[in-house]
Amino acid sequence: MRSATASVGSAPRRRVDASNNRVLLLDAAEQVFLTDGTSAPLDLIATRAGVGRATLFRNFPDRPTLMRALVDRALDRLQARERALRDDPNAFLELLRYCAERIALSAPLVEYCRRMDQRETSYRAAVARYVKIFSGPMRRCVKAGLCRPDLQPADVLLLSSLLNARAIHLAHKRRKLAARSWELMLAAAGIEDTHGV
């Protein structure tokens, strides 16, 4: 009876530990890929996260699985930001600003996404989700006359490509590059930004 109680009580604990380990691994992967690139040895991620190699591969059996999880997490964060801005008439601009700031800190992930096979289901799903997140804010922006009236949801991919096109890995250039990309993207969309990046 005692062992049965222990095993029942330990299951939720294992689930919490597994969830925590996954977050630790994703955080570590972002840090490692930022400093060493997306081809860095995966063992470095396990070491940075403070978990064993087996835990890493139990969560992410290979590099593409890990990269897709990072993309999903980036989209989760973008969606959370969109929800927080739901009542803001400038939500479209603020989401673009958020992306510009994230690109400056996530150049390796951006580069990985650019190299993904566009025929892959995971790639198409990520792109569709990205466009959908921007769709409502863009429509409200157009309706309020705050941007070009001919903007369409798919145009966010073109605007994002202006922000992504020159993403580089040299830390001292990231902020300057992000600011310049931001200016060019705003000009293309016909948006006036009075606050700056």
UniProtKB/TrEMBL annotation:
Keyword DNA-binding on entry: yes
Keywords: DNA-binding
SUPFAM superfamilies: Homeodomain-like (SSF46689), Tetracyclin repressor-like, C-terminal domain (SSF48498)
Residues in the DNA-binding region annotation: 41-60
Matching Pfam families: TetR_N
Alphabetized PROSITE patterns for the sequence: HTH_TETR_2
Residues in HTH tetR-type domain copies: 19-78
Protein's name according to its UniProt entry: TetR/AcrR family transcriptional regulator
